[in-house]
Amino acid sequence: MTIGIIDYGAGNLRSVANAVQALGIEPRIVAAPDDMTGLSHLILPGVGSFGDCMAELEKRGLTAAIREWVASGKPYFGICLGYQILFDESIESPGIPGLGIFKGKVRRFAEDGRKIPHMGWNAAHATHPDDPIWQGLGEAPYFYFVHSYFPIPTDPSIVAMTTDYGDHFASAVRSGAVVATQFHPEKSQQAGLRLLANFLGLPVGTAAE
What we know:
Layout: E1 3-6, H1 13-22, E2 28-30, E3 41-44, H2 50-59, H3 62-71, E4 76-79, H4 81-84, E5 89-90, E6 104-108, E7 118-123, E8 125-126, E9 142-147, E10 149-153, E11 159-165, E12 167-175, E13 178-181, H5 189-200
């Protein structure tokens, strides 16, 4: 098993790398398409803006490489912005196309008195808690969120988890070998490690307390 973490110049690489290392695996940093050779799993962490992320991925030649990776059915885990860019577009960066792997648009929480960004611990309700990716997490585990934007998938069948924060939004999607979350598993203690272990197909107990 060889895990790649995509570096586009602004991602939270260290925290994600530390989480993967805590599971007993030394990840490889991916900064160019050639770095993906021989990988079994790919993780794209996300910090920054939608437009800047897409521009940096394009500059590094990674947009086409990620699309090809997903199209080939290889495991991909998108975190926060790495989740949002899977969709067509975001109101955060008008006119900048996303990867377009899923149909849908990323919108912002309304300015209606709630605190923005949505920051802190919140429950994520699994739509299919029997899915092996959520093994050992229960129907509504708590994860750590930091975001002002969230995707609205056109296809409701890919929604794997939902969370309430004024809006009832899709906090995770799952389609084939693609898993993507609005929350940060690398900052979510044992629940986050368990989710990453499930994604990597590691045995039960790998991320045990």
